[in-house]
Amino acid sequence: MTDVGRHPRIELLTYSEVAATTGFVGNFNVTVRRRARYVDEKECTACGDCLEVCPVVVPDKFNIGLSTRKAIYQPFPQAVPSAFVIDMEACLGHNPIACGKCLEKCEKECIDYDMTDREVTLNVGTVIVATGMDVYDPTEQDEYGYTRYENVITSLEFERLINSGGPTEGHLVRPTDRRQPERVAFIQCVGSRSQQRGKPYCSNVCCMNTVKDSLLIKDHWPETDIKVFYMDIRAFGKGFEDLYQRSKALGVQYIRGLPGEVEEDPATKDLILSVEDTTSGQLEQHRADMVILSVGVEPRRDMESLKGLFTLSATSDGFFMEAHPKLLPVDAPTRGVFFAGCSEAPKDIKDSVTQASAAAARANILMSQGRISVEAITSVIDPEICTGCAICANVCPYHAIIADKEKRTPAVVIEASCAGCGTCAAECPFGAITMRHFEDAQIIAQIDAILEEDPMEKIVVFACNWCSYAGGDFAGISRLQYPPNARLIRTMCSGRVDQEFVLHAFRKGAPLVLVSGCHFADCHYIDANRWTQRRVEKLWDKLEREGIRPERLQLEWISAAEGQKFAKVMREIEELRKAVTPEEVEETKRILTEKAKKPKKKPKKAKKEPVEVAKT
Amino acid sequence: MAEEAKFKCLRCNHEYTDSYDPDKIEERSCPKCGSNSVRRLKEEASKG
Ligand SMILES: Cc1cc2nc3c(=O)[nH]c(=O)nc-3n(C[C@H](O)[C@H](O)[C@H](O)COP(=O)(O)OP(=O)(O)OC[C@H]3O[C@@H](n4cnc5c(N)ncnc54)[C@H](O)[C@@H]3O)c2cc1C
Ligand code: SF4
Ligand code: SF4
Ligand SMILES: [Zn+2]
Predict the structure, then answer these.
(1) Cis peptide, bond prior to residue A222, ω within 30 of zero
(2) Domain tally, chain A
(3) Together in a domain, A40 and A158
(4) Which residues of B touch A461 (CB under 8 A)?
(5) Which residues of B touch A541 (CB under 8 A)?
(6) Does residue A451 belong to any structural domain of this protein?
(7) Which residues contact A142 (CB under 8 A, 6 or more apart)?
(8) A355 in the same domain as A231
(9) Each residue's pLDDT tens digit, B12-36
């Protein structure tokens, strides 16, 4: 961190928060809120004179309240920059000055009570999101008594307790009597791998953190009796199995089973753990002087606002979603944005650093080129047709369209931001948008070709490139049997499936249409497939209003790994197809053809020239 | 705000009641056959 602070080409903005962003790859405008420190960070040498005179003492958050600090303080000993900051909530008051002792004491005159928060705007080409994670709060798992028994602490609190720079200078003591514990118990998977608590994922770091902590204790106090209660120990990293075996060889007992309850002996403040050892099936009780809850990690509580800053999305576990889990694992779906560390998934320091290096290299590829090549599949708006209604800008998951509903200027696509999902083209009520390589005419021609012969035998299936089409491929590779009647039309995203495509297929005699895409959590275009669902729901209503059975339009979310599901769906919809009669199809064709003949209201044209888009 | 709503699976015709938040769009699957062709029956929606 010190190297980063000194690097001539790195500007480190500490005590700062990203408040807003606009723009796109090569041209992001990032507004950073720089919080007032009330101490000039360039002048302060962290001499500590002010500490001596500050009369306010508060719990030290860095040491998780296990020690205290003053109202003027250095966040932690290795903090960069090495400068103090005033906690204004704790300070006795600066307006009017109620104390002013630090101001009087500081010879270098670094203290400025009039400092205020300020915002700076940075123009940057790429962004790396390394916002990390939050740590699970075990209060809700009352059976472990975290809030009731002082000698039950979390692994994070233990981390501070055993640290030589921590509140006890590295001495292991238990909170109630500050006596060195003779028996220490660790409980694993607290806040991890529990469907019931909404945290089904493995937090990745807790097993090895416990193994490390057990070795630390054994190193310093070899007589300590250590028991680890676990479901299974995940020691998959390089050298990890070795550490685990060392810990066992030093006498750490690993007991397979998570305690159902922890109780305190009121007289001794010892803790009694009731557990079923799943290897023997025995119900057991174990006594410990101190219990350490090995807490998991979880997505930051402000994920929603972070997502909004760069139009990011999250996977079902709540962490940020990569552009592609295997091929683009450090890229965000928004071009020019990358991930590092636990913001993307729980990981240890080594993996965080590996990912950070990869993210820096990925960003560097773009930065060193100084220009970007845009994917050929982007949308194009015809200003002659566009009415400026701004519907497209509202649906675009990447905020790639600039439109002004009030001024009614023709909308403009920022090609560098457009990912090519086609949602805008499907939603534009006036047909003003062309999707390069997936034009309306190309898709309509495919529908016509499918239904040219024996339409009653065919099922028109719209499948998205990344998931449902790949699911079909997987079913094929796996040699799964399914009826051959389905004819697939590939679009990049199910969001491209215009309602007109579905109606056209019915007009041309399709007995059944299936719209398919990625599961919500897997959408490769942030949340474009939500628009697919909305559109299909509207179509069901519309079909019913026209006297057409909505059942003839089916919807399915199929992932690339769900070959089995793909085959099952094909078998099911084939049964539905068989139930559609030729008379029903003829009636549908008549209804929809007549409807298509009715003249539509002419749209109002946009007024002015398109808005200017800054160049990348 | 979450409401109760009636849903119909357009694959197996199963009808059921589930919570529904008009401000959220959620992936739905039929509790009987697992299909995602689940339609909310608007006329039968009621406040929960
Ligand atoms: C109890 C526990 C024990 C662990 N033990 C080990 C271990 O022994 N070995 C190991 O390798 N790993 C361990 N880990 C994992 C390790 O902590 C993580 O790998 C590491 O912290 C990940 O680094 P990060 O930069 O992704 O996230 P963080 O360390 O969480 O850092 C993210 C930073 O981003 C800042 N930030 C967030 N939002 C914004 C914003 N909007 N603007 C500006 N800044 C922002 C945060 O304030 C924070 O400083 C442990 C984790 C826990 C919880
Ligand atoms: S008319 Fe189409 S392209 Fe123009 S603003 Fe509306 S939705 Fe966008
Ligand atoms: S194609 Fe998708 S990403 Fe591109 S402008 Fe349209 S909605 Fe946005
Ligand atoms: Zn069903």
Answers:
(1) no
(2) 4
(3) no
(4) none
(5) 42
(6) yes
(7) A148
(8) no
(9) 999 999 999 988 899 999 999 999 9
Residues A327 and A460 in one domain: no
Sheet holding A486-491, edge to edge: A486-491, A459-464, A512-517, A553-557
Query: Can you tell me the ipTM of this complex?
Result: 0.92
Residue A23, domain extent: 2-120
Pick from A71, A81, A63: nearest CA to A169:
A63
Measured CA distances, A615 to A104, A414, A416, A586 (Å): 52, 9, 9, 53
Of the candidates A352, A314, A307, A323, the one whose C-alpha atom is nearest the C-alpha of residue A204 is A352
Cα A193 versus chain centre, distance: 18
Nearest bound ligand to CA A419? 3
Residue A267, SS3 per DSSP: coil
Does residue A318 share a domain with residue A283?
A: no
In order along chain A (616 residues), what is the average pLDDT of each group of 10 residues?
88 93 92 95 90 91 84 88 91 80 90 93 96 96 96 94 86 92 97 89 96 96 97 94 97 97 97 96 96 97 90 89 89 94 96 97 94 90 95 94 91 94 97 96 97 97 96 95 95 98 98 96 90 98 97 97 96 97 97 86 68 55
Do B27 and A520 make contact, defined as CB atoms within 8 angstroms? yes
Would you say residue B2 has pLDDT above 80? no
Helical axes A440-451 vs A499-507, angle rounded to 10°:
30
A-B interface: how many C-beta pairs under 8 angstroms? 37
Task: Tell me: do A581 and A469 sit in the same domain.
Answer: yes
Token pair for residue A89? Answer: 């909530």
Q: Residue A405 domain-assigned? A: no
The distance of Cα A561 from the centroid of its chain, to the nearest Å, equals 21
Asked whether the beta carbons of A65 and A59 are under 8 A apart, the reply is yes
From residue B39, give the alpha-carbon distance in Å to each of A119, A123, A499, A558. 48, 46, 17, 18
* Phi, psi (rounded to 5 degrees) for A448: -60, -45
**3-class DSSP assignment, residue A157:** helix
Confirm whether A605 is domain-assigned. no
Cβ distance of B27 and A519 shorter than 8 Å: yes
DSSP state of A179: P
> Atom of ligand 2 at shortest distance to CA of A401?
8
Strands A225-230 and A183-190 turn out to be parallel
Would you state the torsion angle of the CA atoms of residues A132, A137, A140, A145, taken in this order, to the nearest 10 degrees? 150
- CATH code, domain carrying A459: 3.40.50
For chain B, the domains span: 3-40
Give the pLDDT of residue A61.
85
Report yes or no on A41 lying in a domain.
yes
pLDDT at A468: 96
Indicate whether A226 and A331 sit together in one domain: no
Whose tokens are 């305690």? That residue is A259
Q: What are phi and psi of A181, to 5 degrees?
A: -70, 140
Three-class HEC string of A196-226: CCCECCCCCCHHHHHHHHHHHHHHHCCCCEE
State whether A541 and A460 are in the same domain. yes
**Angle at the Cα of A468 from the Cα atoms of A463 and A474, rounded to 5 degrees:** 125
Same structural domain, A590 and A527 = yes
Test A572 with B35 for CB contact under 8 angstroms: yes
Domain boundary among A266, A298, A330: A298
